[in-house]
Design a protein that fits this description.
Elements (H helix, E strand, L loop, with lengths): L1 H17 L7 H20 L1 H6 L1 H20 L11 E5 L3 H14 L4 E5 L13
Parallel strand pairs: 1-2
């Protein structure tokens, strides 16, 4: 019953708005107000909505100019230390496989350290 009352109330407000002494027809007023509402909704709710409106296109152009400008100013930075020190936490089967594969893949130029809270290790040759 409450839904019916709210529905009738909304309908009466809508009809009053549509037929309240404007020179243009009710459908044109409804279309104009709906278009404005949809545009505002899309503009303020999501980045995707902003892309669908004119403001979104201006924002995209501004971001493109900004990104290009930033790229022109940045100079490439040389790599001063190509050697990395990698620590793998956990000496279980996953940590052991990860440390072994990293050491094999990266080669001798990098240091891979395996840290585990247990002092003993059960050898599992199938995992290596």
């Amino acid at each position: 019953m409450l839904t019916t009352i709210l529905g009738v109330g909304f309908l009466s407000v809508l009809l009053t708005f549509l037929f309240a002494g404007h020179s243009s027809g009710p459908l044109e007023r409804l279309k104009h107000s709906t278009d404005g509402w949809i545009t505002r909704f899309l503009r303020f709710t999501s980045r995707f909505g902003r892309e669908l409106t004119g403001d979104g296109l201006q924002d995209q152009r501004w971001l493109q100019r900004t990104r290009l400008r930033d790229l022109r100013r940045q100079a490439p930075t040389p790599i001063t230390n190509p050697r990395h020190r990698i620590v793998v936490l956990g000496g279980g089967s996953g940590g052991l496989v990860a440390a072994t594969q990293l050491a094999r893949t990266l080669g001798k130029g990098h240091e891979v350290t395996l840290v585990d809270r247990r002092s003993d290790h059960v050898f599992m040759p199938g995992f290596l």
